[in-house]
Amino acid sequence: MKALNYTGNKTFDLQDVDLQPLLPGEVRLKVAYCGVCGTDVHIYHGAMAQRLTLPQVIGHEVSGEIDAVGVGVTDWQPGDR
């Protein structure tokens, strides 16, 4: 899959990465849309970058559908939005 890592100094790097195995209780989303929020903008401008371990995918404003579920997930299934 593709990942856009923030590498610091207002720089991003698009990379191919392997899917990580799901831990118990986790779900994986197939992202349909993502947005940029105020926190992302502050990180980009260096105001909050000290909170990160670089490189790191930033952002948390996403929507999509569940692609896979981990062990113990019972209330969600692949295909759920």
Structure keywords:
81 residues, mainly beta, two-stranded antiparallel ribbon, 1 helix, 5 strands, elongated
General description of the model:
- With 81 residues, the protein is mainly beta.
- The protein has one domain.
- It has one helix and five strands; from the N terminus they run βββαββ.
- The protein has one helix at residues 38-44; strands at 2-8, 11-16, 27-34, 56-57, 62-69.
- The strands form two sheets. A three-stranded antiparallel beta sheet has the order 2-1-4, with no helix packed on it.
- A hairpin with a 2-residue loop joins strand 1 (2-8) and strand 2 (11-16).
- The longest helix has 7 residues, at 38-44.
- The chain is elongated, with a radius of gyration of 15 Å.
- It starts with a strand and ends in a 12-residue tail after the last strand.
Write the layout of secondary structure elements.
Blueprint: E1 2-8, E2 11-16, E3 27-34, H1 38-44, E4 56-57, E5 62-69
Antiparallel strand pairs: 1-2, 1-4, 3-5
Output the strand order for the largest sheet: 2-1-4
Between the first and last Cα atoms, what is the distance in angstroms?
A: 20 Å
Fraction of residues in H or I helices: under 10%
Question: Rg to the nearest angstrom?
Answer: 15 Å
Number of strands: 5
Indicate how many domains the architecture comprises: 1
Please count the helical segments: 1
**Average pLDDT over all residues:** 93
Largest sheet: 3 strands, antiparallel
- Secondary-structure-based class equals mainly beta
What series of H and E elements makes up the topology? EEEHEE
Low-confidence stretches: none
Proportion in β-strands: 35-45%
Judging from the principal axes of the Cα atoms, what is the shape?
A: elongated
